[in-house]
Amino acid sequence: MSKTTRQNKTQSRLSMCLSPTSLKTLFWWLLLLGILILYIFLGLGGLTAPTAIAGINQPESASKEILYRSFAKLNDQSGHVWQAVLFKQVYPGQTQTVNLRLVGFPGSAELLHPQPLKITTATGKVLTAADVFLDEAPAPTIGQYNLKDILPQLSIEPLVLSISVPKDTINISVPQSVVQEWQKVMSAEG
Predict the structure, then answer these.
(1) What is the dihedral of CA 27, 28, 34, 38, to 10 degrees?
(2) How far, in Å, CA of 125 to CA of 80, rounded?
(3) What is the dihedral sign for C-alpha 73, 76, 79, 81?
(4) Nearest CA-CA partner of 96 in 53, 173, 152, 174
């Protein structure tokens, strides 16, 4: 094949690739790809593990109460969201309390009281926390449990919280980062 024939074939291939129609199609595909990549990167922010932030609140009250809290949103096995609030209350001259309040969002199961909270560690250790609401909770999807003696026994590892409800059990997964925040609240000096 001669050099001139090869050059003509190369030019005809290039002219087909660079035609206005193909450039327009290429532009739209690249634009679509860019939008898709941007959407993926923005959407990946929602796939990160839930974080928990422990906040220290020192209200100006006559009782001189100091309140340490950690908030986290956790999912149960059915995908329902629960707000977990671990709080430590310190009153001068009195023993401190450390409670875990679980608040179910709409669609969560209604809790019966008093029902203990079963805590299972990643290593299989099972602990039981007493229900603070002996008769009635402020709302049917709220439970509160005494963790004062249990938290010191927990190492920083994922947990499963189990609550018995009529005909079922709710299992709420607690990531290691949340357990770490709970340990910080427990060790906070007041």
Answers:
(1) 150
(2) 25
(3) negative
(4) 152
